[in-house]
Amino acid sequence: MSSIWTRILKASADAVFPPRCRACGAFFAAPGDRQRENGRPPGDESMTGLVETAFSGQLCPECRLGIVPVRSPACSRCGLPLAGRPGDDHLCQDCLDGPAVFVRARAACVCEAVVLALLHRFKYGGCVELAGPLAALLQAAFRRHFPGGGIDAIVPVPLHAKRLRSRGFNQAELLVRRWQALHPRDQTDGILLPGALIRRRHTPAQAGLGRKERMVNLRGAFSAGPKDEVCGMRVLLVDDVYTTGATVGECARVLAGAGAAKIEVLTLARAL
Ligand SMILES: [Zn+2]
Ligand SMILES: [Zn+2]
Description:
Helices cover 38% and strands 14% of the residues. By secondary structure, it is of the alpha/beta class. The protein has two domains: 1-65, no CATH class; 77-270, Rossmann fold (3-Layer(aba) Sandwich), CATH 3.40.50. The chain is globular. The chain starts with a helix and ends with a strand. Bound molecules: zinc ion (ZN) (2 copies).
């Protein structure tokens, strides 16, 4: 079908069934093709430009503003946003108090209401079409924070087999797969090794638990996969949200035990 007819049909469908915001549920005017094309100026690699483009059909204009990138100053190890002047990165109190197994953790955006709503729909609402835009955010954060690459393997935080069966997918793995499908050149930055970690134990929900309680809750929850895949490798551990760092910390401990040479962490969102 010619593109003019596709556009006319799309415009009529949008007029009769305007898109509904995936975060707040409000109906909103679909951006026109021209607007969509112009949403991001050519070469605009900024997170704001990316959010406008990637979520133009998913989020209303107000909710698009609710995706806030993690900006400097932040903790140079765990990536926690800090108060102060941009560029004034330093260690946060938690990182001063105890060493982490991973070298550093970075995230695309702050975990606030809109991001939480999107992740909830994605993970529990079966809204897998959100994987594309969310993967675009993850990819942009990777390009920004790991400009030289230097990654041999990407390991998603695994789900327990029982949870994987009920959800149908592992959100972290799906995000990495979409990211690598969107940007095949990024595959040179690390091969995806979804079997490098196994979740042995189905842990109780972690919401409401502090960092220490979460660490106790997670002891023995993960083990290295049977193939000894990460030995000597520089690993990027990927998860959807970094809350207290207990989950990625425990995964990093297991990866280090399996011989990983260096472990860094990338998540979509960072809780404050
Ligand atoms: Zn909205
Ligand atoms: Zn820190």
